[in-house]
Structures are given as structure tokens and as C-alpha cells.
Specification:
4 helices, alpha+beta
């Protein structure tokens, strides 16, 4: 199941959070789409070393030729499989949307819209701000359940864990052809 037509309007998300980190690389060096299209499953899994939340990832083409970014992860009581589609693709900004399949506490199935956005903004000539934003639209009953299970706490902790690693891997991709870095 994909995100549907990427020209469809996005829903109003009732859960939103983000994490930002400063990275020692100029913003214009980043190529977020190129990095994501080449981001290995091994590197994705390595972005959550403490929690082990990331389980699997893959990038493939669907029947229409569009890219699908599949991520499997466990966050705040939800085992989720995202099937992200490209919504915004720019060198320093990527926004992906998914109709995410999840199991709440491994039992109750749920499907909900989710977005994942990463941006890189200049801080000065040599540094940038790498930001990872995530949002979901849960039904009222799952939204209430998310409050009772402290989903926002766990989701924010997850973003805090993965974002510095995403920044590091994206910077590694950006500098892959630098002779001084080898």
C-alpha cells in the first residue's frame, strides 16, 4: 500500500515532532535525495544503536515507476511499516509521505498517514542545521491511546536518537568524492 497520489492534499496531522542538530558541513554540500536513494539497510539500522528501533529499509520502484522508501521500525508501542513516496525532493529538503501500516502493541492493526521531512539550512559558511520532522494523523481512539502510552515521549526520544546519525550519514554521502576524506 503506497501513499496514494502525491498531488493529493496532505491531512492535518495531530502528532508532530522534530529534532535538529548542528553539523560541520556547509548546507549546499548536501544532496538529501541522492543520500536517501542510496541509504543502505545496514546504515538505517545503525541509526538507532541504543533502542534498536530500526529493523529494515529498502528503496524500490512501484508499478508506476515511482520510488518507494520502505522502513520498518518499532516506536512507542507501534511496530510500523512505512511505504514512503516522494512529496518534495530538493537538494536540502526532502518530504516523504506514507500510508503507514502498524500494529499497536503488536496486536491491533492500524493504518494512518505519516510524513517524514528532512531539511538542511545554513548556520554560517561552514555549518548547517540538519532537521528531521515527523508527523502522523491518528484516529481519535488511537490518538487517545497514544496519550495514555506516552507515544510523544517515545517518538521524540526516537527522533533524538536517529537524527544525529541521519545527519552523519547524509554528510558522509555529501563528501563521498572528497579526496581529503578518504
Amino acid at each position: 500500500m503506497g501513499a496514494g497520489n502525491v498531488s493529493d492534499p496532505e491531512p492535518q496531522y495531530n502528532i508532530n515532532f522534530h529534532t535538529s542538530v548542528i553539523h560541520d558541513l556547509p548546507a549546499e554540500r548536501f544532496d538529501l535525495p541522492g543520500w536517501l536513494r542510496n541509504f543502505s539497510c545496514e546504515d538505517y539500522v545503525a541509526c538507532t544503536p541504543a533502542s534498536g528501533a530500526h529493523r529494515y529499509s529498502n528503496v524500490y520502484r512501484d508499478g508506476d515507476g515511482g520510488l518507494v522508501y520502505r522502513n520498518d521500525e518499532f516506536v512507542g508501542g507501534f511496530m510500523m511499516t512505512q511505504f514512503y513516496r516522494e512529496r518534495i525532493i530538493e537538494p536540502q529538503r526532502v518530504r516523504l509521505v506514507s500510508m503507514t501500516r502498524a500494529r499497536f502493541f503488536y496486536f491491533w492493526p492500524i493504518v494512518f498517514p505519516l510524513y517524514w521531512e528532512m531539511t538542511v539550512e545554513p548556520q554560517d559558511e561552514q555549518r548547517c542545521l540538519f532537521t528531521c520532522k515527523i508527523g502522523a494523523k491518528l484516529s481519535p481512539i488511537y490518538f487517545l491511546a497514544s496519550k495514555l502510552t506516552s507515544l510523544m515521549f517515545w517518538a521524540q526520544a526516537h527522533a533524538d536518537e536517529e537524527t544525529p546519525h541521519f545527519a552523519r550519514f547524509a554528510a558522509r554521502w555529501a563528501t563521498r568524492n572528497d579526496t581529503a576524506s578518504h
